[in-house]
Structures are given as C-alpha cells and as structure tokens.
Amino acid sequence: MLDVTLLGTSGTLPLPGRYLSSALIRIGGKLFLIDCGEGTQVALRAKGWGIRRIDSILLTHSHADHVLGLPGLLLTLAFSQRGAEEPLRIFGPPSVLPVLESIRVFAPRLPYPVYFIPLEVGDEVDVTDNLKLFAGPTEHDVPCLSYSLYVPRSPKFDVERANSLGVPRDLWGRLQRGESVFVGEREIQPQDVLGPPRKGLKLVFITDTRFTEDLVSFASKIQPPDLLISEGMYGDESMRPKDWDVPHMTFAEAAKVASASGARLLWLTHYSPMMADPSRYIENARRIFPNAIAAQDGTEISLSYED
Amino acid sequence: MLDVTLLGTSGTLPLPGRYLSSALIRIGGKLFLIDCGEGTQVALRAKGWGIRRIDSILLTHSHADHVLGLPGLLLTLAFSQRGAEEPLRIFGPPSVLPVLESIRVFAPRLPYPVYFIPLEVGDEVDVTDNLKLFAGPTEHDVPCLSYSLYVPRSPKFDVERANSLGVPRDLWGRLQRGESVFVGEREIQPQDVLGPPRKGLKLVFITDTRFTEDLVSFASKIQPPDLLISEGMYGDESMRPKDWDVPHMTFAEAAKVASASGARLLWLTHYSPMMADPSRYIENARRIFPNAIAAQDGTEISLSYED
C-alpha cells in the first residue's frame, strides 16, 4: 500500500489557500516528502500524518519555490525531538548542495544527522527494503530530476507446491526473499515455489520541465505508473508567456505524458499563480487523457496492489 | 493616521491558522513590515494591503522564526515587477547580515536594490518624512532589537494670528515646516504662529526578550505608546521550561511593561506553540493592565491623533 497526498499545488509563489507544490508519500509507516517550499511544514502539520516520521526528502531542483521551506522544516524536526538515531536523508541533484549549505546559517546545529545523497539521471536507489527510487530526466533552466517511486511486489508463494516438496514452514520466508534452502539433501530454489513476477506500485512525479519524449520513456519504465503527478503550469497555451521560452508544461502536455506512458491516473499540480481555478481547464487534459484530475491541496489516494 | 495589523502571532513554529509573529504598519500609503518568518508573505497577500508598497522591513533579530520568509518575499517582490527605482531597505542588528548574505543563494539577482541599514540600541532614524524609528534594547540569547515607530504631529497653526501678522497664505507652509519668513522687512518666526507641541502617534514592538526595566524606559520615551505590541510567549509561569533560562516573557510580564510605560493598549503576540488558545490566559495580563488583548492573526487597528 502506498498513500500519497499533495501538500501544495502552487508553482512559483505560495498563495493563500494554495501552498507550494509538494507531495507526501506514506509507505509502510514511513513518510517521504517530495520538495519543500515555504510553508510546506505547515501543510504537513495540518495533514496530520506525523512530522517526525519523515524518512527522506526528495528535492527535484534548487529553485526557491521547491526548497525554501527546508530550513524551517529541519528546525521543526529538531523541535520534535528527532534525535541522533534518526538520520534524515535528502536526495537531489548535486546543484541543491549550495542550498543545503546556506541553510546552515539558519540551523547551525541539528540534533540528528542529515545526509545528502546526490543523484544523477538514471540513478536507482533502494531507499528502504520496499521502496526503489529512480531519478529521471527533465528539461528545465537548472538541473532538475523527475522521480519514480516503485514498491515491488513479491511473486505469489505456492503453498501447495511447498508442502508437496516437504519444505517446512520456517523456511518459507527465505524462499520468499529469493534464497534457496535445503530440505534434507535436496536444494529447493525460489522459482520452485514462487509464481510469475507481479506488478508493483508505481508513482511518478514530474515537475519543472518542458514536454519531452524522454519524460514518457522514464515514466513508462518497468511498468506504467499507477499515478502520474505532473506539473501543469498552464491550463492552456494562452497562459504561456510570449516573450521567453518557458520550460513548463500545459495541461495538454502533461496529459500527453500520462497517455503515452500508460498511466492509470494523472494529477495535475504546480499551477501558475495566474490560474485562479485550475479545474476550469481540466477538459484540455481530459481530451487527451480522460482520467486526469486538477489536484488541489490535500488531494489524496491510497494505491493498492491489483487483484 | 497609522494602521497596524498582525500578520502572524506564533513564536518558534508556524502553525496551521497561526502564522509566525510579524506586524504590518501602514503610514501615508507606505508599508513597513516588522519581521518576516516562513509564510509571512502569504499572510501579507491575504491581508490585501498591497505587497509592492513595502517601503522597509525591520528585523528584530536573526532567529529563523523571524527571518526565514525573507528570501521568498524578496523573490515575490521581484515577481511583482518592483524595479530599479524602488529600493527596499532592511533595518536590523548587524547580526542579521549573514542571513541576508545566505539569501543570495536563493535570490542571486533581484531587479531592485536592497539596502541593509544596521542599527544599534539607541539609534534613531528618519525612515520617511513622517516616521521616526528608534531601536531599543532586549535581553535575548542573540542580539535583538525592540522598535519604536513614532509619527510626529506638527503644532497647531494659528490662522487668526497669521492673518493679524499679515502673513500671506502662500508662506504658511514654510512656517509650518519650521522655517521663518519675511513679511516686508519683518521676520516672522514659526513660534509666532504655531501652538505648543502636540502628541504624535507611537507604536512600540517588543519581541524575544526577558522582562527588564530597560524595556519600560525604552517604551515610554518621548511619550507613552498608543499601542504596545509585545511578545507573550507564555500564558502563565507554568509554561516556562524548567530546565533552562528562557529569555521570553509571560503575559503578566508583558502587561507590566505596558502598565509601567503608560501604554494605552497592549497586544500580546509570539505565542508558544504549546498554547492552543492564548485568550484563555488573558486575565493574567488584565489583572496588571486592563486594556490587554490576546491578539490573533489579522487583529488590526487604526491609530489617529488625539482630539
């Protein structure tokens, strides 16, 4: 099971009633935060999933609207008595390091360790036993990563077959974890008792990028996303500034990524502050990808394995 | 006329429904902001007094809950098309300079100039033609200033006396501004046509300090405050942490400053996040100073000259 909510949906500026774009993901009781703008910690507190349980923070890039809430959140974690045994990991492109360093001015001493793990496009990390993180491409005016969070599902364990092979129950776990075991002289392989591979859960988060075909390839890797969260800076083409080439997507472009990557559901977010009511433009996405939602602060869903 | 509102009333942490302690003051169409925590810019926008009209920002000290909103606000002012002709002044103790320098990481280029004016206790600045700023003492664990904002009032102009002295109407303004004028060969002094000095408007802002008698002397200088805005971190003594000497005031201590300085009105603010409903403790202040209010986000008042 993977729960996900948007703590904010605003791009560029925080607005009354619309916090800066940020996602909170809960897997097995641990929290993972994607981006942390000014005010994200307030939305996090209001959500009530718990602040201290943040395992890791994933930063997409160093722009102010995605990172300025970080020093405040780090201090709040300190006030919440997070201690030396509870390190915090921050993942992101190497260019966020100067941001982290400048934060030291505001939070010179923290009672818990903070580790920065730089990621490049194509990197793959086992964040926890049951969460794989993939760093993907974007095209923005500073280095920026898209992220894919993948919760694998182990193959079905064939109880009848295990019994018929005489495998005692206390060895089942090792076979499920992919190890072979001995029953007397006979070696039993995992594939003897495990069914075919099964689909996991996959969440893809894409922000601060123009549309590229690389986004589609990244989003569709391993399996199509159960949920694609994508920036939709502009409800339609008319909102895109005329006088410079803005590396952001319209609702229609985000829908193209969703459709071409085979996503099951699309949440639009990271709206331009010019757009008072993003839902007014949702048809521009639905014409291309019907299962699109103009997400709002607090939109949430629980994703479960198929069956 | 001086309008003032509290954009937030929280100390230490921003909370849902309670922004970090900050005050917004409007004098003659210009805005002056005292302190800028995470989220202050959102409260500022919600208030609707205008963001671009900020003339100056007064920082009391460098602690995160009073300055972390600054980089975001500076960027928002840039997005609001504040240009090269609209410099922003930031006043504060010299120790906020490293904070301002670290902000450059988030806002490397701004389209308007930012000037930092360091202040020491005892400094007096003419911020505009009709606003004097006094920097006062506190006792905190880092250098921190209290502020007094004073809007002077010119003495009454005696029209009958001016007419009887034969002063033509177009010279009245110069006399009102304190210059002497000639009527024929005869020099007329301002005191010939002006009444006695009149009380101005005075607002005192005190935060992040333990109680000291110096606060009282500072608050009562020139004239008693029309409004004293004071931190009231703790509703009562029981909330004060036992294990370390905290440089903050209880409601009763803030009321003591109000009473001893002859203030007309006291707003309490900068509440501990432990205090869910500060108004429950207001009697602890009112026993000492009856005209005390447990201010909330958005509390506002217009101060006018007496008459």
If you had to describe this structure to a student in words, what would you say it looks like?
2 copies of one chain form a homodimer. With 307 residues, the first copy, chain A, is α/β, with parallel strands linked by helices. Chain A has 2 domains: 2-153 and 204-303, Metallo-beta-lactamase, Chain A (4-Layer Sandwich), CATH 3.60.15.10; 156-195, no CATH class. Chain A has 10 helices and 16 strands. The first copy, chain A, has helices at 40-47, 64-67, 70-79, 97-103, 159-164, 172-176, 190-193, 213-220, 251-260, 282-286; strands at 2-8, 22-27, 30-34, 54-58, 88-92, 114-118, 124-128, 131-136, 146-153, 181-183, 186-188, 198-206, 227-231, 266-269, 292-294, 300-303. In chain A, the strands form 3 sheets. The first copy, chain A, has a 7-stranded mixed sheet with strand order 6-5-4-3-2-1-16. Chain A has a 7-stranded mixed sheet with strand order 7-8-9-12-13-14-15. Chain A has a two-stranded antiparallel sheet with strand order 10-11. In chain A, helix 8 (213-220) packs across helix 9 (251-260). The first copy, chain A, is globular and about 75 Å long. Chain A starts with a strand and ends with a strand. The model of chain A has no long low-confidence stretch (mean pLDDT 95).
